[in-house]
Design brief:
- The protein is α+β, with helices and mostly antiparallel strands and about 290 residues long.
- It contains eight helices and 15 strands.
- A hairpin with a 6-residue loop joins strand 9 and strand 10.
- The longest helix is centred in the first third of the chain and has 28 residues.
Protein backbone atom coordinates (compact mmCIF):
# COMPACT_ATOMS: atom_id res chain seq x y z
CA UNK A 1 0.00 0.00 0.00
CA UNK A 2 2.87 2.35 0.78
CA UNK A 3 4.26 1.92 -2.72
CA UNK A 4 0.93 2.87 -4.29
CA UNK A 5 0.59 5.93 -2.05
CA UNK A 6 4.07 7.11 -3.03
CA UNK A 7 3.26 6.46 -6.69
CA UNK A 8 0.10 8.57 -6.38
CA UNK A 9 2.23 11.46 -5.08
CA UNK A 10 4.68 11.06 -7.98
CA UNK A 11 1.82 11.28 -10.46
CA UNK A 12 0.14 14.21 -8.71
CA UNK A 13 3.30 16.30 -8.98
CA UNK A 14 4.27 15.10 -12.50
CA UNK A 15 7.54 13.50 -11.36
CA UNK A 16 10.01 11.65 -13.56
CA UNK A 17 11.17 8.47 -11.78
CA UNK A 18 14.27 6.35 -12.40
CA UNK A 19 14.85 2.88 -10.92
CA UNK A 20 18.52 2.79 -9.97
CA UNK A 21 20.95 4.26 -7.49
CA UNK A 22 23.09 7.38 -7.27
CA UNK A 23 26.52 8.35 -6.02
CA UNK A 24 28.46 11.64 -5.77
CA UNK A 25 30.14 12.50 -9.07
CA UNK A 26 33.92 12.44 -8.64
CA UNK A 27 36.10 14.62 -10.88
CA UNK A 28 39.89 14.21 -10.79
CA UNK A 29 39.63 12.34 -7.51
CA UNK A 30 37.51 15.03 -5.85
CA UNK A 31 33.84 14.82 -4.91
CA UNK A 32 31.53 17.37 -6.57
CA UNK A 33 28.08 18.67 -5.53
CA UNK A 34 26.54 16.63 -8.40
CA UNK A 35 25.29 13.08 -8.37
CA UNK A 36 25.53 10.52 -11.13
CA UNK A 37 23.23 7.59 -11.76
CA UNK A 38 24.37 4.00 -11.32
CA UNK A 39 22.64 0.59 -11.40
CA UNK A 40 20.43 -0.44 -8.48
CA UNK A 41 17.38 -2.62 -7.83
CA UNK A 42 13.65 -2.00 -7.43
CA UNK A 43 11.45 -4.77 -6.03
CA UNK A 44 8.25 -5.07 -4.01
CA UNK A 45 6.79 -1.67 -3.02
CA UNK A 46 9.44 0.15 -5.04
CA UNK A 47 8.20 -1.60 -8.20
CA UNK A 48 4.70 -0.14 -7.75
CA UNK A 49 5.89 3.29 -6.63
CA UNK A 50 7.87 3.63 -9.89
CA UNK A 51 4.65 3.28 -11.90
CA UNK A 52 3.42 6.64 -10.60
CA UNK A 53 6.12 8.49 -12.51
CA UNK A 54 4.88 10.46 -15.49
CA UNK A 55 8.16 9.52 -17.16
CA UNK A 56 9.61 6.18 -16.02
CA UNK A 57 12.93 4.49 -16.72
CA UNK A 58 15.01 1.60 -15.42
CA UNK A 59 18.74 2.34 -15.66
CA UNK A 60 20.90 -0.03 -17.69
CA UNK A 61 22.17 -2.72 -15.32
CA UNK A 62 19.40 -2.07 -12.77
CA UNK A 63 16.97 -4.81 -11.73
CA UNK A 64 13.18 -4.39 -11.57
CA UNK A 65 10.85 -7.17 -10.43
CA UNK A 66 7.47 -7.98 -8.91
CA UNK A 67 6.37 -10.95 -6.77
CA UNK A 68 3.36 -12.67 -5.24
CA UNK A 69 1.53 -11.01 -2.38
CA UNK A 70 1.99 -12.51 1.05
CA UNK A 71 1.11 -11.70 4.65
CA UNK A 72 4.26 -11.40 6.71
CA UNK A 73 4.93 -12.45 10.30
CA UNK A 74 5.40 -15.77 12.09
CA UNK A 75 2.42 -17.68 13.40
CA UNK A 76 1.72 -20.88 15.30
CA UNK A 77 -0.11 -23.77 13.64
CA UNK A 78 -3.37 -22.78 15.38
CA UNK A 79 -3.03 -19.18 14.23
CA UNK A 80 -2.25 -20.28 10.69
CA UNK A 81 -5.55 -22.15 10.49
CA UNK A 82 -7.55 -19.29 12.00
CA UNK A 83 -5.95 -16.62 9.86
CA UNK A 84 -5.91 -18.48 6.53
CA UNK A 85 -9.33 -17.22 5.43
CA UNK A 86 -8.64 -13.64 6.54
CA UNK A 87 -5.29 -13.65 4.74
CA UNK A 88 -6.91 -14.91 1.55
CA UNK A 89 -9.48 -12.11 1.65
CA UNK A 90 -6.80 -9.49 2.32
CA UNK A 91 -4.73 -10.67 -0.65
CA UNK A 92 -7.78 -10.56 -2.93
CA UNK A 93 -8.55 -6.99 -1.87
CA UNK A 94 -4.91 -5.97 -2.39
CA UNK A 95 -4.85 -7.60 -5.84
CA UNK A 96 -7.95 -5.66 -6.86
CA UNK A 97 -6.48 -2.38 -5.67
CA UNK A 98 -3.22 -3.07 -7.52
CA UNK A 99 -4.99 -3.85 -10.80
CA UNK A 100 -6.97 -0.60 -10.58
CA UNK A 101 -3.83 1.38 -9.68
CA UNK A 102 -1.68 -0.16 -12.43
CA UNK A 103 -4.29 0.52 -15.12
CA UNK A 104 -4.81 4.10 -13.92
CA UNK A 105 -1.07 4.69 -14.19
CA UNK A 106 -1.17 3.62 -17.85
CA UNK A 107 0.60 0.30 -17.28
CA UNK A 108 -0.55 -3.06 -18.68
CA UNK A 109 -2.55 -5.04 -16.09
CA UNK A 110 -0.64 -8.17 -17.13
CA UNK A 111 2.01 -6.92 -14.71
CA UNK A 112 -0.19 -8.21 -11.84
CA UNK A 113 -0.53 -11.61 -13.55
CA UNK A 114 3.24 -11.76 -13.91
CA UNK A 115 3.63 -10.93 -10.21
CA UNK A 116 1.34 -13.81 -9.25
CA UNK A 117 3.61 -16.26 -11.09
CA UNK A 118 6.79 -15.21 -9.27
CA UNK A 119 8.13 -16.35 -5.84
CA UNK A 120 6.78 -14.33 -2.91
CA UNK A 121 10.28 -13.74 -1.56
CA UNK A 122 13.88 -14.78 -2.10
CA UNK A 123 15.19 -15.03 -5.65
CA UNK A 124 12.79 -12.71 -7.50
CA UNK A 125 13.71 -12.60 -11.22
CA UNK A 126 14.43 -9.28 -12.88
CA UNK A 127 12.23 -8.34 -15.84
CA UNK A 128 13.86 -8.03 -19.26
CA UNK A 129 14.00 -4.72 -21.10
CA UNK A 130 11.54 -6.03 -23.69
CA UNK A 131 9.04 -7.01 -20.98
CA UNK A 132 9.41 -3.59 -19.31
CA UNK A 133 8.58 -1.92 -22.63
CA UNK A 134 5.78 -4.33 -23.59
CA UNK A 135 4.00 -3.79 -20.26
CA UNK A 136 4.65 -0.03 -20.42
CA UNK A 137 6.47 -0.10 -17.09
CA UNK A 138 9.02 2.24 -18.71
CA UNK A 139 8.28 5.21 -20.94
CA UNK A 140 11.85 6.08 -22.00
CA UNK A 141 11.40 4.74 -25.52
CA UNK A 142 11.82 7.33 -28.25
CA UNK A 143 8.76 7.20 -30.55
CA UNK A 144 10.74 6.87 -33.77
CA UNK A 145 7.60 7.07 -35.90
CA UNK A 146 6.77 10.59 -34.69
CA UNK A 147 6.28 12.60 -37.90
CA UNK A 148 7.32 16.15 -38.75
CA UNK A 149 4.58 18.50 -39.87
CA UNK A 150 4.53 21.70 -41.93
CA UNK A 151 3.12 24.86 -40.38
CA UNK A 152 2.80 28.42 -41.56
CA UNK A 153 4.41 31.46 -39.95
CA UNK A 154 2.80 34.89 -40.40
CA UNK A 155 0.37 33.31 -42.83
CA UNK A 156 3.02 32.78 -45.52
CA UNK A 157 6.37 31.15 -44.71
CA UNK A 158 6.61 27.49 -43.75
CA UNK A 159 8.42 25.77 -40.92
CA UNK A 160 8.83 22.09 -40.13
CA UNK A 161 7.83 21.13 -36.61
CA UNK A 162 8.17 18.06 -34.39
CA UNK A 163 6.87 17.48 -30.87
CA UNK A 164 8.15 14.27 -29.37
CA UNK A 165 8.21 12.84 -25.82
CA UNK A 166 11.66 12.29 -24.35
CA UNK A 167 13.10 10.34 -21.46
CA UNK A 168 14.10 13.40 -19.46
CA UNK A 169 11.47 15.95 -20.41
CA UNK A 170 7.75 16.13 -21.01
CA UNK A 171 8.29 17.05 -24.63
CA UNK A 172 10.94 18.28 -26.98
CA UNK A 173 10.28 20.45 -30.00
CA UNK A 174 12.47 20.90 -33.05
CA UNK A 175 11.98 23.42 -35.84
CA UNK A 176 13.85 23.73 -39.10
CA UNK A 177 13.65 26.72 -41.39
CA UNK A 178 15.78 28.91 -43.62
CA UNK A 179 16.14 32.66 -44.06
CA UNK A 180 16.29 34.29 -47.47
CA UNK A 181 19.67 35.95 -46.89
CA UNK A 182 21.32 32.74 -45.70
CA UNK A 183 21.25 30.87 -49.00
CA UNK A 184 21.71 27.16 -48.43
CA UNK A 185 21.78 27.37 -44.63
CA UNK A 186 19.02 26.11 -42.36
CA UNK A 187 18.44 26.81 -38.70
CA UNK A 188 17.54 23.89 -36.47
CA UNK A 189 15.96 24.85 -33.15
CA UNK A 190 15.90 22.34 -30.31
CA UNK A 191 13.63 23.35 -27.45
CA UNK A 192 13.88 21.54 -24.12
CA UNK A 193 11.17 21.67 -21.47
CA UNK A 194 12.60 22.72 -18.11
CA UNK A 195 10.91 23.37 -14.77
CA UNK A 196 10.87 27.16 -14.38
CA UNK A 197 12.96 27.04 -11.20
CA UNK A 198 15.86 25.56 -13.20
CA UNK A 199 15.48 27.34 -16.55
CA UNK A 200 17.80 30.19 -15.54
CA UNK A 201 20.62 27.79 -14.68
CA UNK A 202 20.02 25.75 -17.85
CA UNK A 203 20.02 28.93 -19.98
CA UNK A 204 23.27 30.11 -18.39
CA UNK A 205 24.86 26.72 -19.06
CA UNK A 206 23.63 26.76 -22.67
CA UNK A 207 25.16 30.19 -23.34
CA UNK A 208 28.59 28.74 -22.57
CA UNK A 209 28.31 26.27 -25.45
CA UNK A 210 29.91 26.87 -28.84
CA UNK A 211 28.29 23.97 -30.68
CA UNK A 212 26.02 20.94 -30.36
CA UNK A 213 26.93 17.46 -31.63
CA UNK A 214 24.44 15.85 -34.02
CA UNK A 215 24.61 12.10 -34.58
CA UNK A 216 28.00 12.03 -32.83
CA UNK A 217 30.26 13.27 -35.64
CA UNK A 218 28.50 16.46 -36.80
CA UNK A 219 29.24 19.70 -34.95
CA UNK A 220 26.57 22.36 -35.48
CA UNK A 221 27.45 25.93 -34.36
CA UNK A 222 25.16 27.35 -31.68
CA UNK A 223 24.08 30.81 -32.85
CA UNK A 224 21.44 31.74 -30.27
CA UNK A 225 19.94 30.72 -26.93
CA UNK A 226 16.48 31.93 -25.94
CA UNK A 227 13.79 31.08 -23.37
CA UNK A 228 10.03 30.89 -23.83
CA UNK A 229 8.38 31.38 -20.43
CA UNK A 230 5.44 29.22 -19.43
CA UNK A 231 3.37 28.38 -16.37
CA UNK A 232 5.64 26.28 -14.19
CA UNK A 233 7.71 25.11 -17.17
CA UNK A 234 9.82 27.04 -19.66
CA UNK A 235 11.42 26.07 -22.96
CA UNK A 236 15.15 26.69 -23.39
CA UNK A 237 15.72 26.92 -27.14
CA UNK A 238 19.07 26.15 -28.78
CA UNK A 239 19.30 27.59 -32.33
CA UNK A 240 21.83 25.77 -34.52
CA UNK A 241 23.15 26.71 -37.98
CA UNK A 242 23.15 23.67 -40.24
CA UNK A 243 24.05 23.56 -43.99
CA UNK A 244 21.45 21.90 -46.22
CA UNK A 245 23.92 19.15 -47.17
CA UNK A 246 24.38 18.26 -43.49
CA UNK A 247 20.65 18.30 -42.85
CA UNK A 248 20.16 15.95 -45.81
CA UNK A 249 22.66 13.51 -44.28
CA UNK A 250 20.69 13.58 -41.04
CA UNK A 251 17.35 13.20 -42.84
CA UNK A 252 18.58 10.04 -44.59
CA UNK A 253 18.54 8.26 -41.23
CA UNK A 254 15.61 7.52 -38.94
CA UNK A 255 16.70 9.54 -35.91
CA UNK A 256 18.66 12.61 -34.91
CA UNK A 257 20.69 12.20 -31.74
CA UNK A 258 21.99 15.41 -30.22
CA UNK A 259 24.17 16.21 -27.23
CA UNK A 260 26.34 18.98 -25.81
CA UNK A 261 29.28 18.91 -23.43
CA UNK A 262 28.52 21.04 -20.39
CA UNK A 263 30.33 21.86 -17.16
CA UNK A 264 27.80 19.65 -15.37
CA UNK A 265 28.39 16.23 -17.00
CA UNK A 266 25.46 14.53 -15.29
CA UNK A 267 22.79 16.95 -16.52
CA UNK A 268 20.36 15.32 -18.92
CA UNK A 269 18.93 18.54 -20.37
CA UNK A 270 21.50 18.65 -23.16
CA UNK A 271 20.91 15.38 -24.98
CA UNK A 272 18.03 13.66 -26.69
CA UNK A 273 16.72 11.75 -29.69
CA UNK A 274 14.38 13.09 -32.35
CA UNK A 275 12.65 11.41 -35.29
CA UNK A 276 13.55 12.43 -38.84
CA UNK A 277 10.50 10.79 -40.43
CA UNK A 278 9.33 12.90 -43.44
CA UNK A 279 12.04 15.50 -42.83
CA UNK A 280 13.81 14.68 -46.12
CA UNK A 281 10.56 15.20 -48.04
CA UNK A 282 9.96 18.57 -46.39
CA UNK A 283 13.43 20.08 -46.97
CA UNK A 284 12.89 21.22 -50.60
CA UNK A 285 9.52 22.70 -49.65
CA UNK A 286 11.06 24.56 -46.70
CA UNK A 287 13.85 25.91 -48.89
CA UNK A 288 11.37 27.38 -51.36
CA UNK A 289 9.49 29.09 -48.55
CA UNK A 290 12.22 30.78 -46.53
CA UNK A 291 11.44 33.05 -43.62
CA UNK A 292 12.09 36.71 -44.48
CA UNK A 293 15.03 38.41 -42.75
Amino acid sequence: MGGMRLGEMFRKHGCSVIAGDSAPYVDAGKATPWFEEKPGFCYSSCAYALLGGKIRSVEEGSRYGVHQHYIGGKRSDVMLREQAEADSMAIQVLSGLLVEYVMRMGVDARLITLAALQPDRGNIPAMSRKTLEDLRVVTDVAPLAAPWTLETVDGASLVGRLIQPQQNADEEMALTYCRSSQGDVFFLDIAVSVVSDFSGAVEEEARMLSHVSLNENIKAPLVQVSVNKGRGKDKVILSLRVPRSTLLRIANGSTLEWSANTSNPVWSFFRGTLSTLQLKTFLPILQRNCLPT
